[in-house]
Design goal:
Blueprint: E1 8-12, E2 31-33, E3 42-50, E4 53-58, H1 63-74, E5 80-83, E6 86-89, E7 100-101, E8 104-105, E9 111-112, E10 120-123, H2 129-141, E11 154-159, E12 164-167, E13 182-190, E14 199-202, E15 228-231, E16 237-241, E17 255-257, E18 269-281
Antiparallel strand pairs: 1-3, 2-6, 3-4, 4-16, 5-6, 7-10, 8-9, 10-11, 11-18, 12-17, 13-16, 13-18, 14-15, 14-17
Amino acid sequence: MALKQFLSMSFTAAVLAAVLSAKSRSQTEPQIPLGNSCPGPRYTVRTLSYDPLIQHIENFITPEESQYLLQIAYVRAPPRCRQFGVYLLTDSRDSQPRFQRSRAISTDGRSIAAQERTSSTAYLSSDDSIVQCIRSRASEFQGYVDLDMMEDLQVTRYLEGQQYTNHYDWAANPAARNQTTNRETTFFAVLDVDCASCGTRFPKISVDWGVEDERWCNLVDCAAQTELTVRAVAGSAVFWRNLHSDGTGDARTLHAGLPAVGGGRQKDRVEYLDAPGGLMHM
């Protein structure tokens, strides 16, 4: 499938996955504004595929938000103090880690540890003001959808050699999994990155990047001619629609979370802020 148009739109508004950089967290203290305001980054949307809809969102989340979300993923109650109108967070990544082995859903609806998914996950509280801001941005992006139709945010961590092999975010038979809804859309954003080869792969989507603008190669793996691989770019997100208009799953949205390879001073490690089911189909 050749991409015939380069669609680029800029907005002022909103989240989501994370790859840890080699820079020490103690070198930079994230500063988060106080109050209920949600200053949104100015981001750019580029359409990777029209059918199925897959979009790349550049600068979807700020560096300060990324650092903050990583910290609350690593500690149950992040230490904070008020100074000069902002919250200052201290580095406590190794204190009270919240990560647990990521789970997969079996065909009979059970949550299980599966060899296809070897990452670990930390769920974020929706009561947190920064998490609320990010959820609101994801809602606005989709036309102000009801926040009750969105799942909680989660940070997913991949250590060296870990991955999530090809899978769908929708269920062929939600009722068999004791679900009353299905995942209509997904947001997947990069908080930080330290790897030469990592990202999200769609094996059933192909684009002849040789006939497209070379600037795409900053965002995708242009060498992959038989599949679409979106590079992990800090602050950016991938958004896609999982279902057809009739509510059935779109088999072309098969995707995988690739392992981190070729990092810097740290061992290869990737962490994603994930909002599976950005919109639920009733």
